[in-house]
Every structure is written in structure tokens, then in C-alpha cells.
UniProtKB/TrEMBL annotation:
<keyword id="KW-0238">DNA-binding</keyword>
<dbReference type="GO" id="GO:0003677">
    <property type="term" value="F:DNA binding"/>
</dbReference>
<dbReference type="InterPro" id="IPR013430">
    <property type="entry name" value="Toxin_antidote_HigA"/>
</dbReference>
<dbReference type="InterPro" id="IPR010982">
    <property type="entry name" value="Lambda_DNA-bd_dom_sf"/>
</dbReference>
<protein>
    <submittedName>
        <fullName>HigA family addiction module antidote protein</fullName>
    </submittedName>
</protein>
Length: 87
């Protein structure tokens, strides 16, 4: 059974749909964005959330809306709540 969007961490989407197609490494993205590196690395590792600050930076860099990133996080959070925190 395939995972619904609610079960996919925004970090996975960032890695697979944005970074990989562009050949961006974590280090390259950290240096391109004006955000704390630890926050971005945590997001990429699926260990941290999309914060407002990260959403703004990612939106500007990848030419998508801030709301896109915030909606991914909200959907993931809702899915985790529904599943009792299990992925």
C-alpha cells in the first residue's frame, strides 16, 4: 500500500522532489539559504519540522509558495496525530 501525503515527511519531499533533481547536496542548500544549518539538516533527515523561517527560505529558493511548505508540514502533523505518532 502506498503512503498518503499525510504520511510523507516534508524532509523526504524536499530531498526527493527538489534536491535530487537539481543535484543539490545538503551543504549546498545550507549555504544557499539564510537559515540555521541545524534546522535545515534536521528537516532533510526527517527529524525536524518545516518552521515558518524554513518555509520562507525554501519558498524563495525553489520558487514555490510559503504555504506549500507549511501545508506539507500540517498534513504530515495531522497524519501523525491520526496514526498515534507512527509513520
Amino acid at each position: 500500500m502506498s503512503a498518503s501525503l499525510q504520511e510523507i515527511h516534508p524532509g523526504e519531499i524536499l530531498r526527493e522532489e527538489f534536491m535530487k533533481p537539481l543535484g543539490l547536496s545538503e551543504a549546498e542548500l545550507v549555504s544557499a539559504l539564510d537559515v540555521p544549518g541545524g534546522e535545515l539538516i534536521a528537516l532533510i533527515a526527517e527529524a525536524g519540522p518545516v518552521t515558518q523561517n524554513l518555509a520562507r527560505a525554501l519558498a524563495a529558493h525553489f520558487k514555490v509558495s510559503v504555504q506549500f511548505w507549511l501545508n506539507l508540514q500540517a498534513a504530515y502533523d495531522a497524519g501523525m496525530k491520526e496514526n498515534g505518532g507512527r509513520q
